[in-house]
């Protein structure tokens, strides 16, 4: 079945350093979404990318969707302690099932 | 954004008992709700898709007789864990999509942390 892989699993950075998490799908995605889950919390929607090669920015966060619509990345510039949490990518496959398949998540720790 | 509530937020129960978790979309109608399970330090695993007025669609490996799902209205879906055992202890999260498209963002409830003793 469709799989969404995410790397790295964990990342520890010093406050102010940049951070990137990568997401790869075994199949072409209709779109890709990114969620953030704070420790003890639930996933919160960040953004959705739909078009091939699309790039979107939210302040210090930059999201990219690959040309082949099989990979995506989230880059955080100059991390802050408030960025701590687990970032999940999730995609809808092209089979039109309406099911969102989540990556394993990347847990970010930021040292002040 | 749309708000999804879940109740209870935490529940501790004895082995063998049943636990019902409610998921409500507060300010929109959700024809489809999704139930996920998340074990510590792991990703969200889709358990089932709940459609209003029809039977839920379960993912492979999820026992439909153990995890009973009811979606009686456009704003309420329930998950009942029957005869719970310690291995059922997990974080159960529901989500709902807004109407108007299959690929919309999903709004997640705050989750229910189940501990089975």
Question: Could you characterize the architecture of this molecule?
Answer:
The complex is a heterodimer of chains A (112) and B (117). With 112 residues, chain A is an all-beta fold. Chain A has no helices and 11 strands. Chain A has strands at residues 4-7, 10-14, 19-25, 29-37, 44-49, 55-58, 61-65, 71-76, 85-93, 100-102, 106-111. In chain A, a hairpin with a 5-residue loop joins strand 7 and strand 8. Chain A starts with a strand and ends with a strand. Chain B is globular. Chain B is mainly beta and 117 residues long. The N and C termini of chain B lie far apart (37 Å). The interface between A and B is medium-sized, with 23 and 22 residues.
Topology of helices and strands:
The complex is a heterodimer of chains A (112) and B (117).
Chain A: E1 4-7, E2 10-14, E3 19-25, E4 29-37, E5 44-49, E6 55-58, E7 61-65, E8 71-76, E9 85-93, E10 100-102, E11 106-111
Parallel strand pairs in A: 2-11
Antiparallel strand pairs in A: 1-3, 3-8, 4-5, 4-9, 6-7, 7-8, 9-10, 9-11
Chain B: E1 4-7, E2 10-13, E3 19-25, E4 32-38, E5 44-51, E6 57-58, E7 67-73, E8 76-81, E9 90-97, E10 106-108, E11 112-116
Parallel strand pairs in B: 2-11
Antiparallel strand pairs in B: 1-3, 3-8, 4-5, 4-9, 5-6, 7-8, 9-10, 9-11
Low-confidence stretches of chain B: none
What's the overall average pLDDT of chain B, rounded? 90
Beta percentage of chain B is over 45%
Q: H/E order of the elements of chain B?
A: EEEEEEEEEEE
Q: Please, how many helices of chain A?
A: 0
Question: Shape of chain A, please?
Answer: globular
Taken from the alpha-carbon principal axes, the silhouette of chain B is globular
Biggest interface reads: A-B, 23 and 22 residues
Structural class of chain B: mainly beta
- Biggest sheet of chain B: strands, sense, closure? 7 strands, mixed
Give the termini separation of chain B.
Answer: 37 Å
Write down how many β-strands of chain B occur, each being a DSSP E stretch of 2 or more residues. Answer: 11
Radius of gyration of chain B, rounded?
13 Å
End-to-end gap of chain A = 41 Å
Percent helix range of chain B:
under 10%
Q: How many strand segments of chain A?
A: 11
- Structure classification of chain A: mainly beta
Number of helices of chain B: 0
Helix content of chain A: under 10%
């Amino acid at each position: 079945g469709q799989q969404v892989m995410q790397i790295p699993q964990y990342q520890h950075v010093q406050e102010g350093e940049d951070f990137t998490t990568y997401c790869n799908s075994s199949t072409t995605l209709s779109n890709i979404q990114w969620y953030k889950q704070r420790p003890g919390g639930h996933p919160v929607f960040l953004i959705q990318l739909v078009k091939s090669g699309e790039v979107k920015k939210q302040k210090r966060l930059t999201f990219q969707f690959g040309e082949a619509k099989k990979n995506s990345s989230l880059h955080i510039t100059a991390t802050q302690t408030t960025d701590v949490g687990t970032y999940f990518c999730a995609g809808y496959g092209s089979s039109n099932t309406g099911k969102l398949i989540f990556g394993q998540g990347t847990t970010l720790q930021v040292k002040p | 954004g749309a708000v999804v509530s879940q109740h209870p937020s935490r529940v501790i129960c004895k082995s063998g008992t049943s636990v019902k978790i409610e998921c409500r979309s507060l300010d929109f109608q959700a024809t489809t709700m999704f139930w996920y399970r998340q074990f510590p330090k792991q990703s969200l695993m889709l358990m089932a898709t709940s459609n209003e007025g029809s039977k839920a669609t379960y993912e492979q490996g999820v026992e439909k007789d153990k995890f009973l799902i009811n979606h009686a209205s456009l704003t309420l879906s329930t998950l009942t864990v029957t005869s719970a055992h310690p291995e059922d202890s997990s974080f159960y999260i529901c989500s709902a999509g807004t109407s108007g498209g299959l690929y919309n963002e999903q709004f997640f409830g705050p989750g229910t942390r189940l501990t089975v003793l």
